[in-house]
């Protein structure tokens, strides 16, 4: 029964963090551009926003560990005598980032949460890195930093226009 409770906690946390991350990135992809702020400030807002998303997700996992340990009693933590709420958060940051010092570690069915949190954290961190890269591409195009002429449509899709020489060559090759 404890394992099923752990699975339920994992499903709620993974579903919740992925949905929260999606909505947060969606907001960040629209929000800063509509605020009419300094171009550099746009990227700073995005980076800070992504950082806050990850902090909230780490906190959600920390609450999940607390819930599994204190409320449902499906496991415990070793490595320290008395575990306080800050230790759940500490362990969550350590696991989410796959740092893994090992000074605090889960026992029994809480180990499932730790393994899944690490996978969840790696995926969400990768998603954030990809998002940040794409936003930087848009930033460079909007502010003329790519060296390539570009067009941005209404949905912020970037299409690099072919260079004049490439257009001429393509025109000659057409029948």
The CATH class assignment is: Mainly Alpha
Averaged pLDDT = 85
Q: What is the number of helices?
A: 5
Count of β-strands: 4
What structural class do you assign from the helix and strand content? mainly alpha
Largest sheet: 2 strands, antiparallel
What is the number of independent domains? 1
* CATH architecture name: Orthogonal Bundle
Instruction: Using the CA coordinates, give the radius of gyration.
Output: 22 Å
As for the CATH topology, it is: Helix Hairpins
Helix content percent band = 55-70%
Low-pLDDT parts are: none
Q: What are the secondary-structure elements, in order, as H or E? A: HHEHEHEEH
What quaternary form is this?
single chain
Element layout with pairings:
Layout: H1 2-34, H2 39-71, E1 75-78, H3 85-96, E2 105-108, H4 110-142, E3 150-152, E4 158-160, H5 164-173
Antiparallel strand pairs: 1-2, 3-4
Fold and architecture overview:
This protein has 5 helices and 4 strands, in the order ααβαβαββα. The longest helix has 33 residues. The chain is elongated. Helix 1 packs parallel to helix 4. The protein has a two-stranded antiparallel ribbon with strand order 1-2. A two-stranded antiparallel ribbon has the order 3-4. It is mainly α. The chain has one domain: Helix Hairpins, CATH 1.10.287. It starts with a helix and ends with a helix. The model has no long low-confidence stretch (mean pLDDT 85).
């Amino acid at each position: 029964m404890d394992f099923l409770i752990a699975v339920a906690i994992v499903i709620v946390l993974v579903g919740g963090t992925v949905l929260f991350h999606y909505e947060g990135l969606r907001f960040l992809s629209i929000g800063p551009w509509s605020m009419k702020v300094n171009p550099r400030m746009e990227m700073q807002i995005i980076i800070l926003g992504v950082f806050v998303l990850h902090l909230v997700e780490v906190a959600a996992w920390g609450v999940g560990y607390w819930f599994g340990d204190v409320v449902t009693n499906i496991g415990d933590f070793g490595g320290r005598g008395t575990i306080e709420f800050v230790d759940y958060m500490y362990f969550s940051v350590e696991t989410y980032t796959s740092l893994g010092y090992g000074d605090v570690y889960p026992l029994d069915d809480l180990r499932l949460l730790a393994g899944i949190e690490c996978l969840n954290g790696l995926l969400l961190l990768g998603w954030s890195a990809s998002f940040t890269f794409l936003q930087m591409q848009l930033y460079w195009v909007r502010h003329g930093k790519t060296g390539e002429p570009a067009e941005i449509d209404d949905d912020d899709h970037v299409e690099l226009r072919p260079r004049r020489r490439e257009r001429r060559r393509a025109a000659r090759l057409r029948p």
